[in-house]
Design goal:
This protein is mostly helical and about 230 residues long. The protein folds into two domains: about 1-55, no CATH class; about 60-225, Chondroitin AC/alginate lyase (Glycosyltransferase), CATH 1.50.10.100. It has helices at about 25-40, 45, 50-55, 60-75, 130-150, 155-170, 205, 215-225; strands at about 10, 15-20, 100, 105, 115-120, 180-185. A hairpin with a 4-residue loop joins strand 1 (about 10) and strand 2. Helix 5 packs antiparallel against helix 6.
């Protein structure tokens, strides 16, 4: 494919030089991709076999046991706290609706009661962040409690994790509505934006139990407690 450039190379005495029409950037990139992608697609180049890497097996639970249990024991004393504990007066939704405001939006000095204006890179400390902080707390509590159960099989860790799950997703008085319609709102401009999904990044850690779905004992106990 590179030959399709139809370039010629001549030696002018001072070294080789390319003469003739030069390829466009698009043509060059296309040729480069055609030349190198087949090489990168080889499995051993992209992902060497495990036996080729000679990596030792690491017992993460044993290495991190002290830290896990120290954190889990601390979280056993923390009651579930969901977004319903933090009313959001500027939200267009209700108390069960997650709400947050765009970080870089501020009141307009020329029109204090009007729509907010953007000051990129500068976080407004007066914007509503309590719901986001509630998610952050859950994102460290759940992994610690579930990991502690997995390495000790002590039911009080799993039981407390279930209390959090019930509060957030089951109990009618405290549960969160399953949408982000009012996330990353901008005062005076929009009641919510699709980019609000970034606020839930930490929930991937909260749902760490999903990784252990093959552990029938864990799921059986969770189902019995809910």
């Amino acid at each position: 494919m590179i030959d399709s450039f139809h370039m010629t190379i001549e030696n002018d005495g001072d070294g080789e030089a390319i003469v003739g029409p030069r390829p466009s950037r698009r043509t060059f990139c296309a040729a480069a991709v055609g030349a190198f992608v087949p090489l990168l697609a080889k499995r051993r180049l992209l992902l060497p076999a495990r036996e080729d890497l000679h990596l030792p097996e690491i017992d993460v639970a044993a290495v991190d046991r002290t830290r896990i249990l120290r954190a889990a024991k601390r979280y056993l004393h923390e009651a579930p706290v969901t977004i319903t504990a933090f009313p959001a007066v500027r939200s267009a939704g209700g108390k069960h609706d997650y709400f947050s405001e765009g970080d870089y939006w501020w009141p307009d000095p020329a029109n204090p009661s009007g729509p907010y204006i953007q000051r990129d890179g500068l976080s407004n400390p007066d914007n509503f962040i309590q719901h986001r902080h509630a998610l952050l707390r859950l994102s460290v509590q759940m992994p610690a409690l579930s990991a502690a159960w997995l390495i000790t099989r002590s039911e009080h860790y799993a039981a407390h994790a279930v209390r959090h799950l019930r509060a957030w997703f089951v109990d009618e008085s405290t549960r969160i509505n399953p949408h982000l319609e009012f996330a990353q709102a901008i005062h005076g401009r929009t009641t919510g934006r699709g980019i609000g999904i970034i606020d839930t990044l930490h929930w991937s850690r909260s749902l760490v139990l999903r990784r252990y779905s093959r552990d029938r004992d864990l799921w059986r106990m969770m189902c019995a407690m809910t």
